[in-house]
Design goal:
Layout lengths: L1 E6 L7 H17 L4 E3 L13 H5 L6 H13 L2 E10 L2 E9 L5 E6 L5 H7 L9 E4 L2 E5 L8 H9 L4 E5 L8 H14 L2 E5 L2 E4 L2 E4 L3 E3 L5 E4 L5 E6 L2 H10 L16
Parallel strand pairs: 1-2, 2-3, 7-8, 8-9
Antiparallel strand pairs: 1-14, 3-4, 4-5, 6-7, 9-12, 10-11, 12-13
Length: 262
């Protein structure tokens, strides 16, 4: 499945503007043969928008979800997008997967909140593994800081995730995560990892770009630079199976020795 990484901060504070950016990118991705488009963390509203996070937050099945579903269906491409999700009085930092037919397949709430900014504006999610089947692949969702905890990614590996999709808002000076950690996570867990970042300055944050899709061999299939971009790479189920056969990490685990980790 050809996967498109939309590296963009869009128009912070403008849901309508960001839906237009997504619509245009989905059209370009579909024209290039992509089956999936992935946006950064909080793409729908912008990340560094302070109290507007709560004002713009919507339910997982709200008007913006319907708008994304319409974009996906019209272009015939699945979409993973980041957004603030309202559920009762709580607001979550969430990512939702919509199929190419416009059907909502999976919704994930970020479990590991980074820094005071996120802890001030979001409640943490409580479900670590969220998956859906898409294009012959089992797709899993995490968000940004979540992927930096090896336990999260290993849980996905043990649950059979083939492609781990990670919308992110990775900021300076932590670019080593995109450059080094993501390929290692893909290799040690025998999966593809699509890590899709914001770019440029927003408020107090400087986002570093460097969106990447790494394979189970630890090799980056595509990597963006520091500017707005749409990059594409193939995710091959047959290669995942062959790599898992050749690399015994998951089979050679000895869980009985790891009890002290929890």
């Amino acid at each position: 499945m050809r996967t498109a990484l939309l590296q963009s901060s869009g128009l912070p504070g403008s849901v309508v503007g960001n839906l237009k950016v997504l619509d245009e990118a989905a059209g370009r991705a579909a024209d290039a043969g992509a089956g999936l488009v992935v946006t950064p963390e909080m793409f729908l509203t912008g990340y560094a928008i302070g109290d507007d996070i709560a004002r713009l937050a919507e339910a997982a099945d709200g008007d913006s979800a319907d708008a994304v579903a319409e974009i996906a269906g019209r272009h015939g491409v699945a979409i993973v997008y980041g957004y603030p999700e309202r559920a009762g009085e709580a607001v979550f930092n969430s990512a939702q997967l919509v199929s190419a037919e416009g059907v909502r397949l999976a919704n994930y709430r970020k479990t590991h909140l980074f820094g005071c900014f996120e802890r001030d504006h979001f409640a943490p999610g409580e479900r670590s593994v969220v998956q859906a089947d898409l294009g012959g692949l089992r797709v899993g969702l995490l968000i940004c800081y979540d992927v930096e905890f090896p336990e999260n990614v290993r849980a996905h590996a043990l649950a059979g995730t083939d492609l781990l999709v990670v919308p992110t808002a990775q900021m300076h000076p932590f670019q080593f995560v995109a450059e080094s950690m993501i390929p290692v996570r893909a290799f040690e867990n025998q999966m593809y990892v699509a890590y899709v970042n914001r770019v440029g300055r927003e408020g107090e944050f400087e986002f570093v770009g460097l969106s990447t899709l790494a394979g189970p061999d630890g090799v980056a299939r595509t990597r963006a630079g520091r500017a707005e971009d749409l990059v594409l790479a193939e995710v091959d189920p047959a290669f995942v199976a062959a790599s898992r056969e050749a690399n015994p990490y998951l089979q050679d685990r000895r869980p009985g020795l790891y009890g002290s980790l929890v």
